[in-house]
Amino acid sequence: MPDERTHARAQIRGVKETAEADLLAKKNVIGVDIADKVTDGKNTGQLSIVVFVEDKQPTSKLSAADRVPKEIDGVPTDVQQMTVELQGPSMQLVDDVTPQVDTTTYAVLHGGISMGPLRSVYLTPPDVTSAGYYIFAGTLGAMVRDRGNGATMALTNFHVACVNSTWSVGDRMVQPSLLDGGSSSNQFGSLTRATLSDDVDGSVVTVDTGRSTTPSVQDIGDVAGHTAATVGAAVRKRGRTTELTYGTVISTDFTVTINYGSDVGSRTLHHQIRVQTDTSRSARFSDHGDSGSVVMDNNRMVVGLLFAGSSDGQWTFANPIQSVLDELNVDLMVAPVVTRPIVSCLNTRLVVCNITRPVACLFTRSAGCNLTRTASCLVTRAVACNVTRATWCPVVTRTAVTCSVFTRAGCDIPIPDPGPIEGGQSEDGHGYGATADVPEEYWAGYLAALEEINELDGPDEA
């Protein structure tokens, strides 16, 4: 049961957090999480403390200090292999620029699109294969607002906008990135704040005055708000490289150590969101250049800020969005809520849309011929609506019926056919315009009621 697993996860969490520092200190260990134990490639369904290593080796080849115990305080452990890498920024030597996937210049800034620094950064091995000046591309995640001065800002990762420790407040950003064909003419804002902490890899860029923005994400829609990620939730993201992709939250307890390069070094981030790719809809959830994307649930609520993933594309990692917003001192910009008038279908007052006054059926009278008189034929343009008055009052055209009269048998008098008119059905089953056994009192009362409503309400709107 989900409740039982939630309770079990909460019990394991304390044990995991107490033990993870020792586990991360072991050889090859890069991550610790809470997830189902996998044996011989099969999911056992048993929650355990999962220890991720870069290179899984037989216990016999490890020193006693580097071995992961089979259980910790009664909680089973599992060892799984994974290679972790930052999902951006994509980079190339300045002299070897080839525009990549999303090369669009957007007149209105919004989430899910290419961005990057205007500056190039000089890198050397082992960070790159050959020394030189490199340019970078990442993703603008979403629009945010400064809690202090209300300025409009663009949210992305530290390693997208800052790249490394050589960054400065005021560094200019471009959309699209230089790698995607952008240039100095595509500048949109200045780097204002950044953080690389135990929980967050983030930065914000103040958008230039006069530049248009909208609180939406490309291919997903308006941002509705933010919420905490929950295990099992379906999520999606739109990034500069893999564009719109889909996945499922597997954990919110992931701890991972990542190498940010020789200039920054290895950093360990705690309480991260781990997303599994929905391979039925996406080849992988993220790749290089997707860093900075926001991860959203099916209600268009932001749950995280994407920053890294596994090299095989199976896993993607994101900072919890509340931590991101708090550390950067910003709030998500959300689309305004459009309020619509409430139409009540429980109104006890009858409102009739576009009533045409009753007209009498035509017939020929002749001396000596006894005719059965028909009731007046109600011609209506719409059904009576039991709703609050509104310009969109539902209109239904009733099935056409033919107005007719009856004559006494043997009476040979021509009676013209008035042709079909619009009619309907009353609540007691009588057809409007029908003549069979309908007492005149019925119509008299009905018409009187209509007259009263018309006098009280005035002309109705269609």
Automatic annotation (TrEMBL):
SUPFAM superfamilies: Trypsin-like serine proteases. This is Serine protease. It comes from Flexivirga endophytica.
